[in-house]
Amino acid sequence: MAKRKTTTDSQTAWGILDECPVLHVSWIDAEGRPDVRALHGARVGDAIYLHGAPVGEKNGALDRPVTLVGHAVVARIPSHFVEPERACPATTWYRSVHVRGVLRLETDADRRAAGLQALMQALQPEGGYRPIRADDPLYRAGLRKMLVARVDVQAISGKVTLGQHQPARVPPVLAGLWRRGEPDDLRAIEAIRAACRPPAAALPEALRPHRPDQGPAASLHVHPTAADRDAALALLYPAYWNQHLPAEVVARGFDGAPAWIGARDPDGRLVATASAMSDGRRGWISDVIVDPAWRGRGLGAAVMRALLDHPRLRRCVAVGLRTRDGQGFYRRLGFGGPSERPFPISEMWLNRPA
Ligand SMILES: CC(C)(COP(=O)(O)OP(=O)(O)OC[C@H]1O[C@@H](n2cnc3c(N)ncnc32)[C@H](O)[C@@H]1OP(=O)(O)O)[C@@H](O)C(=O)NCCC(=O)NCCS
């Protein structure tokens, strides 16, 4: 892993800003005192829009130079991920953005509405409201009363500190995150891999590509991108256990599963997916499927082994599944049946229309 710099180009910096719903805005007020506020901010073109009450503290910042900082912690890294005793390695890996500009009152009605609409898009991307327009009677009066200000950006820079500056720390940090396994840790594993491109040997053992000697190796992943989700659902909709379910129910099952492992081919296309539910005591595996072109090369077994080592399943005392014709495949992975319990038991289900 080559050492890579942590400062970014301005396009990446704007991307980081888009991921930070709250920005810290600082200025020097009329009395010469420094002031700082945490505010929602959103970009429209090359400006950043802020809003507030008409007689708020931000008024004191109008027409003054301002500095904005946005910060998103990607991974909390305790010292013991890296060293057993010394406290010094404790840190966070993060993305941040730093902006210099001048704060101006936005007076143009359409641009005020566009600024607030951009803020809504950041805060409520799912919709569920009438889009803000200057000529809409629902918003016209409120828009007139509200303070809408814009930062005319003079300089923007970003910083990405995800281990690319400390390649020797990447393997123990990835191993620590996989071991700790909180939901944000899985997302962090993928962010660090994307930033550092570590070789397979630097990954936690369960996530290394399987049987790379048998043709191109697929990489194993623990948090799906939007493209992974689309490709996984395309594999899953026609599967015999989902065929009778509406597409949105299959998608809800994919999105709701707390444990997921996917495999991507060397071009980054998803070619296998497996999900599981778990309460930490018992787990339930569902939706295991390998793209037909990749079957018979050990990928299904690799995905399953990674899933069984997933933090949500790792300590379960029993992991179950149902299959029509995959008994041989699962038996090789240690599954047997029926479950052994020290008392007679019936399985009961309440079935509801999908
Ligand atoms: C079942 C499935 C996930 C296996 O994936 P795969 O990548 O082809 O499996 P692998 O290559 O990792 O096979 C691992 C081992 O299981 C064996 N195996 C694979 N599928 C099997 C099956 N259906 N029955 C018995 N053994 C099977 C393989 O021969 C291999 O044995 P080996 O280790 O001795 O060589 C894949 O065939 C698939 O997606 N099937 C359709 C969907 C499905 O049935 N899912 C399971 C429903 S619960």
Helix-strand layout with pairing:
Elements lengths: L6 E2 L1 H10 L2 E7 L5 E7 L1 E3 L2 E6 L12 E13 L13 E15 L3 H15 L13 H9 L1 E15 L8 H11 L2 H14 L22 E3 L4 H11 L10 H10 L2 E6 L5 E9 L3 E9 L8 H10 L9 E3 L6 H6 L22
Parallel strand pairs: 12-13
Antiparallel strand pairs: 1-8, 2-3, 2-6, 4-5, 5-8, 6-7, 7-8, 9-10, 10-11, 11-12
Helix pairs in contact: 4-5, 6-7
Coenzyme A binds next to strand 12, helix 8 and helix 9.
Helix content: 25-40%
Q: What count of helical segments does DSSP give?
A: 9
User: Unreliable stretches, pLDDT < 50, 5 or more residues?
Assistant: none
Structural class, from secondary structure content? alpha+beta
Mean pLDDT: 94
> How many beta-strand runs?
13
- Small ligands present: coenzyme A
Question: CA-to-CA gap between the ends?
Answer: 49 Å
What fraction of the residues are assigned to beta strands by DSSP? 25-35%
Q: Report the radius of gyration as a whole number of Å.
A: 25 Å
Question: What is the name of the CATH class of the largest domain?
Answer: Mainly Beta
Explain what you see.
The relative contact order is 0.10. The chain has nine helices and 13 strands. The mean pLDDT is 94. The protein has two domains: 7-161, Pnp Oxidase, Chain A; 207-354, 3-Layer(aba) Sandwich (Aminopeptidase). Strands 1, 2, 3, 4, 5, 6, 7 and 8 form an eight-stranded antiparallel beta sheet that branches. Strands 9-10-11-12-13 form a five-stranded mixed beta sheet. The protein has 354 residues and is of the alpha+beta class. It is globular, with a radius of gyration of 25 Å. β4 and β5 form a beta hairpin. The structure holds coenzyme A. Coenzyme A binds at residues 239, 288-290, 295-301, 321, 323, 325-326, 328-329, 332.
